[in-house]
Amino acid sequence: MTNTTKGERMVNGMKDMDIAAIPLDINDYATRYNLRLHLDPEEPDRSCRAAFYRDLDLMAFDVLAVKHLAAIKEERKKRKLQHQ
C-alpha cells in the first residue's frame, strides 16, 4: 500500500520489476475486510472476564482452554456474522 508520497515514489520506481499493482480504495477495503478499521470495538463481557481469571488460578491449563477458548471462538464467530 502506498499512503505516502515516499511510498508512491518507491512503487513507481519498481514498475520495471513486473509487479502487479492495482488501485484500491482503503475505505472500500476496510468496510469489506477489516471491521476494526471502521467499527468501534465492543465492550468485553466483564463477568466472563472475571470467571476466566478465577478459573485461571484454579484449573489446569488444558481444562481452562477447553472451557474458555472454545467459548471465545464461538463469540468471535457470532460477532463476525453480525457484521457481514
Automatic annotation (TrEMBL):
Superkingdom assignment: Bacteria
Name the UniProt record assigns to this protein: Uncharacterized protein
